[in-house]
Amino acid sequence: MELGPEFFMKQALKQAEQAFAEDEVPIGAVVVANNQIIGKGYNQVEKLKDPTAHAEILAITAAAAYLSSKILDECEIYITVEPCLMCFGAIKNARIKKITLGCLEPKHGFSNFLYNNNKVEIKSGVLEDEARILMQTFFERKR
């Protein structure tokens, strides 16, 4: 039986409810492959004293362990709230093919950061050649 987006979002909401019960920011996530949940998570930043213990990161980590792979290109992720920039980066790095959101997060969501955040100063070009050469050398050796 093919399960739909509402089923998987309900599972993500159950994760968010667990976060809520533990006085964490109530966000939940599930990673799905072949119509099966292979990773799930809820925010545990306070519990674990870890600023990276977001629902998405924990769900991606569980899915990667399940598949024994850092590449999740056959997976989808269902998240109750739009991910922050860190989590969006993790989703992109895992090569997850589809994100389904419950709602947008106008203050801390990645789209707000990309389009509206002028509070972060970014300076580039410091030892640029050295940094670029190191990266190029690494990937040349991998090929």
Structure description:
By secondary structure, this protein is an alpha+beta fold. 45% of the residues lie in helices and 18% in strands. It contains six helices and four strands, in the order H-E-E-H-H-E-H-E-H-H. A four-stranded mixed sheet has the order 2-1-3-4. A hairpin with a 2-residue loop joins strand 1 and strand 2 (36-42). Helix 4 packs across helix 5 (110-116). The longest helix is centred in the first third of the chain and has 17 residues, at 5-21.
> Which sequence of strands runs across the widest sheet?
2-1-3-4
General shape: globular
Strand content: 15-25%
The helix/strand class is alpha+beta
Regions with little confidence, pLDDT below 50 for 5+ residues: none
Q: What is the helix/strand order?
A: HEEHHEHEHH
The biggest sheet amounts to:
4 strands, mixed
Helix content: 40-55%
Radius of gyration from the alpha-carbon trace, in angstroms: 17 Å
Distance between the termini: 42 Å
Average predicted local confidence, pLDDT: 91
* Strand elements, count: 4
